[in-house]
Each structure stands twice: as C-alpha cells, then as structure tokens.
C-alpha cells in the first residue's frame, strides 16, 4: 500500500479493525501495510483506542511480545444497552401488535439492520469472554439476530433446520417437544456443520417454555459440543415449568391481554443484576 498521511492512515486502520473484530493483528502487519515504523503505528492505535472508548465502540486491546498485536473487541456498556432495549420495549408495547391467540408481532424489529446490529453488539458484549466458536439458531426468525451477533464475535453461524435438505449432506436429526404446543417436532443439523468439542452460543428470537432451545441443546450433545450460553430477544413469562434454565433475554413479556389490547413488558434477565 502506498504511503499515507497520518490522518488517512488512522482512518484506514480504524476501518480495518472494525471489519475484523476479535482478530489478533500483529503490529508488523500495519507497519508493512503503511510503510511506517512500529512506534508510529503504536501512537496511531492509542488515538483509535481513546476514540473507541469515548464513543463506546468497544475496546482496543494490545498484547505485548513477539506473538502479540492488537485486537478490537466490540463492546457496549450495560447502561447503554438498556437504553437501546428500553426504546424497543416501548415500541413493542403498542397494542396494535397483539395477534389472534395472544401472540405478539415483532418481526419488523428483526428486519431492521440498525436495530439488529445493536442487539448483536449487546449479546457480543455479554458473551465475548467465553471463547465462543459458533453461534447457533433454528430457522428462521432468529437468523438475523444470530448473524449480527456472530459478526461482532467474528465466528461462524450454524442454522438448525426443521426438515432435511439434500444440499446439507448427511445430517443428525432429533425429535423434541415443543414447549408451548407439546407437539413432537424434528430438527436436524448437517454432520459437516460442527466439529467435536466446539463451544456454541445458542440464540433464538422468542422463548416461552423453552422447547426449541432444549432441542438445540440436545442436538449439540450429539456433536459433543459445549453450550456456553443461551439467549433470546424476547421471553414470555411461563406459569408451567420451563424446559431450560439460565436463558438470558433482552425483553420479558409480563402479560398480554388480548381482550383489552394491553401489553406489559420489562427489560429481560440480561439486565437483572444491573445496578
């Protein structure tokens, strides 16, 4: 790359870091990329680090030594995350979102890239220290959220299918009990999708009894994988016993009154310990 002025170098370096989160980049790479001394690169990175912290874009971590370098870790404070989620909660409490049967329409929020990216950054902040290898979800509504989270964690996404497809090759299939309807359903995953002993973060858009998440957890047992976390966008309070524990949510539905068109929500379990 041709020699750049310092301002242009910092701008290009910032863009490079933002596009490659959680990747350790040797200082030598930047030094050779811009034809600059490592001391100059270190000074540039310090400026970027200060801006990232000031604008709450995340943390720029420097690792010393011959094998060291710099790593960008997307991060948002729980206070800022709660503000984002509160704005969404207010929108979801609109009575016009109540569907027949007491269901709630919320797909439009998961179809807006800016909102989904915010949610992905929140989950990334909550799980970035667990060395996640893969993000898993089941088709279809949870896919945008899983993609956004995987992008910030810089890991692949795994999509569990509800039916077998010839393009998936050999698959592992299991039967599971849908928590709300109590019906027996099937989910499957390609044998090529996941290596043994992988650390997996499970995500879904909505949870009531937890049957789908329980199914994904059971499916991962067939791959000798470790579940490092389970999280959902919205959870509904469930009077009966749940099939899974310790699921972290962003929003919790307290009550839906279809007759009087009223919805009561609160921030989810991810914020329960927030002082």
Automatic annotation (TrEMBL):
Domain Bacterial purine repressor N-terminal: 5-74
CDD domains recorded: PRTases_typeI
Tree of life domain: Bacteria
Keywords attached to this entry: DNA-binding, Transcription, Transcription regulation
Keyword Transcription regulation attached: yes
UniProt domain Phosphoribosyltransferase: residue ranges: 109-254
A Pfam family matched in the record: Pribosyltran
Description of how the protein assembles with itself and partners: Homodimer.
Family under the similarity heading: Belongs to the purine/pyrimidine phosphoribosyltransferase family. PurR subfamily.
Entry protein name: Purine operon repressor
């Amino acid at each position: 790359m041709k020699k750049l002025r310092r301002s242009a170098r910092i701008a290009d370096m910032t863009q490079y870091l933002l596009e490659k989160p959680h990747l350790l980049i040797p200082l030598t790479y930047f030094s050779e990329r811009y034809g600059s001394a490592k001391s100059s690169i270190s000074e540039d990175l310090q400026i970027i680090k200060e801006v990232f912290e000031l604008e709450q874009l995340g943390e720029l971590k420097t690792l010393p030594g011959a094998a060291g370098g710099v790593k960008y870790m997307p991060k948002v404070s729980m206070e800022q995350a709660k503000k984002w989620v509160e704005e969404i909660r207010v929108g979801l409490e609109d009575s016009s979102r109540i569907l027949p049967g007491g269901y709630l329409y919320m797909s439009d929020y998961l179809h807006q890239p800016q909102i989904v990216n915010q949610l992905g950054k929140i989950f990334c902040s909550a799980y970035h220290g667990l060395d996640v290898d893969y993000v898993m979800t089941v088709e279809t509504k949870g896919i945008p959220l899983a993609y956004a989270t995987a992008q910030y964690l810089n890991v692949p996404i795994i999509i569990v299918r509800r039916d077998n497809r010839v393009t998936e090759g050999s698959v592992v299939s299991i039967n599971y009990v849908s928590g709300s309807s109590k019906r027996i359903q099937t989910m499957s995953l390609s044998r090529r999708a996941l290596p043994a002993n992988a650390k997996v973060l499970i995500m879904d858009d909505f949870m009531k009894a937890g049957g789908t998440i329980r199914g994904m957890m059971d499916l991962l047992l067939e791959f000798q994988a470790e579940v490092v976390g389970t999280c959902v966008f919205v959870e509904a309070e469930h009077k009966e016993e749940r099939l899974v524990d310790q699921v972290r949510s962003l929003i919790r539905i307290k009550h839906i009154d279809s007759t009087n068109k009223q919805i009561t929500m609160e921030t989810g379990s991810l914020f329960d310990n927030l002082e």
